[in-house]
Every structure is written in C-alpha cells, then in structure tokens.
Known about the structure:
nine-stranded mixed beta sheet; 2 domains; Immunoglobulin-like; alpha+beta; Type 1 dockerin domain; five-stranded mixed beta sheet
Amino acid sequence: MKKIKIVSGLMALAMSVSVMGITASAADPVKVTVGKETVQPGESFSVDVDLSSVASSGLTSIDFAISYDASVISISDVTLGAAGNTGASSQEGEYGDTVFGWKDTGSQIVVVWSTGLEDSNYWVKNGTFVTITGKANASAKAGDASALTVVAVDRAAYPGGAANSDIVFSAVAADNTVTNYGATGVAGEVKIAGGTTTEADWGDADCNGSVDVLDAVMLARVSSEDTGTGITAQGKLNADVTHDDSIKADDLAKLLKYLAGKLTKDDLAK
C-alpha cells in the first residue's frame, strides 16, 4: 500500500482559504460514481471511480474516502485511471511522489490527489479517476454485499479539533483564487453471487414475513441510497422485484403496484 505523503499546504489551502485571506468561491459539485460488481467468495473484483461534471479547467486538490464493509471484502490496490494520471507527477520534480496517495483504514479507502502546477493540462478532468481492486472474503455468503459509499475522510481536521466533514474537490488558479466544488456521490457495491428468494418473499424488504407499506418505505430509502436502513442481504434480494441485481425506483414502483392490487405475488417473482 502506498502511504499518503501529500504536501499538506495544498490541502490546507483548499479547506482554510478564509484564514489565509485568499479569495474563494463555490461552484456546482463534482459527481463521483463508484462502480458495481458481483463476484464469488474469494474472487477478485475491480471497480472504477468516475468523475463527471468537473469544470473544463479541472481540479488541483482532491480529498475524499470510500467506505466499505471489511466483513465482505478486502482492498488490494488503488491505481490512477486516465483522468487521474495527468502527468503531474513527472512535472512536480522532487514532489512528484506526493501528487497521489491512498490508504486503507480498514473501513475507508482514503484517496488524496494534489498538484501545485499552474498549467491546467496537468489537472484532473472528467473520466475514471481511480480503480479499486480487492477480493471478496472467502467467508462471505451468497447475497452479502459491501456498499462503496463516497464520504469525508474519517479524521480530525486539526489536532484536538472536530471530526472532518469535508469532501474536497477544488482548484487553485494562478492568481490564488480557489474554487471549491464539493461532491455528490453515487454509491457502488461489491455483491456476493448467489442467494435465493421464494415467491412468498418477493417484496419483503424488512424480512418480517409479510409485504406491506413498511417494505415500500424501506425500499424507497434504499433506492435513494439511505445507508441507515439496516436492510439485510436477504432483504436486498427480496426487494429486487425487477430482477436486475440493483434496488432503485423501478423496484419501488412495481412494489407499490402490488400493494395497490394491480399486481400479484407471481408478478413480483417475474
């Protein structure tokens, strides 16, 4: 694992410009989309982390994490994709090895990228920023899944300070103007292949033996990427009534039709 050795001044610049008297502005957020893959227990996986909605000039400072479930997967490596491999490292001289770094904390994959180059040709643009590789744990069971969610790095902002709450996507122009973009994340997933659901269980997202409005509420929360639902791996299987290995608005719409009497249990199983 490559340890993070990023020059701290650049990240501090992005997060604390008001203290330094540098002009800062906010702009539309960067969209961060994490890929999905289904694998067998013990099998390797590879998912891309893609950036979109990046301003045409690009980004000079990036600091975020992807949370994961260590009981389901382990992380092997994080490598730069086409959008992250800008050539900045070769232009930074003695600081070249500080441009990109990553760290596995056991619950988060921390990713940091930063350059002081003024030439925007070396800044991060739209596309695949990094690729995450790893393995599904041999002990993982069919239907288990690890969400891959874009979050702020779990660390104190300063010694003795409050917990960090910032996802950093920013650009520092030649005139020291800083633009902070923030981020919107689309969670990915590594899912363990297999698992079964009987006809009676289709739609039973909370696994309580019946299909009712509470299942619709849970499915709505899951499809909107609410990570606090407590839905189990079996619940996710039951909720996938469109049978496309994902839970989204289409599943909710189909379940609501069932609850309204327009579909039968047999329809949910198809």
